[in-house]
Amino acid sequence: MDIFRLRPKPRRNLWRMFLWCLCILPIFLQGYALARSVDERIYLVAVGNVDKAILKNLKSALPSRLPMTAKVVIEPAAALPAGAYSPSRKQYNAYLILDELSKEVRLFLDMERALFVIDEDIFVPDLNFVFGLADQKKGTAIISLARLKNEFYGMKTNSALFNDRVVKEAVHELGHTWGMDHCPNSRCVMYFSNNLQDTDRKRDNFCLDCRIKLGKRYSGGGLLGEKARK
Ligand SMILES: [Zn+2]
Ligand SMILES: [Zn+2]
């Protein structure tokens, strides 16, 4: 019998953990409070024909998934820009659509974002397809519903799962417009989805690390960048 087992365990590690938590708590609270203190306005814009119920669902689901207070407004639908369809790929060019539509919106970038929603399959030239695309500099993003549907893969319709996927992709692309990069945490909404399994695995909100980063970006005023992200 190992008599050392009968002795009380050293409590040093517990103390160390407690002190560590005390140290990071103010950083977390500060970031979270700053993020919550900014009122975002998010404009949802259907591109071409999109089921109104999907936009309504997004409007009610988005605010609780975001780490800041946000008002979501459904705007009148926009027409699909001419020339966006690629006959050879049988898909729509996401860069072209986002670029054209972004020219038509005027956003106050400190607190406004536009999220376009399209029910067509979209691509960017170097990839087979994208679920969405964001332009951080312009504060705009687009998500495609086409590949979020089970039917696209010959599977049975699942409306609840589809709506969950739409919310995740919307939060992900909005995250890019706020300057967030992809997150290595496969459960975080900012994780890069290569396929639907990735999307289904992740949650519909930001992990703790991303919430802190987002809070710092708000406090530092560094919301603008230069790249478009998928
Ligand atoms: Zn994350
Ligand atoms: Zn992304």
What's this model, at a glance?
By secondary structure, the protein is of the alpha/beta class. The chain has six helices and nine strands.
Describe the fold and architecture.
The longest helix has 26 residues, at 12-37. This protein has helices spanning 12-37, 52-65, 94-103, 159-177, 196-201, 208-220, and strands spanning 39-47, 69-78, 85-86, 91-93, 112-118, 122-123, 132-135, 140-144, 228-229. It is an alpha/beta fold. Helices cover 38% and strands 19% of the residues. The protein is built from six helices and nine strands. The termini are far apart. The protein has a single domain, classed as Collagenase (Catalytic Domain) (3-Layer(aba) Sandwich). The site of one zinc ion (ZN) has 6 residues, from helix 4.
Write the layout of secondary structure elements.
Elements: H1 12-37, E1 39-47, H2 52-65, E2 69-78, E3 85-86, E4 91-93, H3 94-103, E5 112-118, E6 122-123, E7 132-135, E8 140-144, H4 159-177, H5 196-201, H6 208-220, E9 228-229
Parallel strand pairs: 1-2, 1-5, 4-6, 5-8
Antiparallel strand pairs: 3-4, 7-8, 7-9
Bound molecules: zinc ion (ZN) (2 copies).
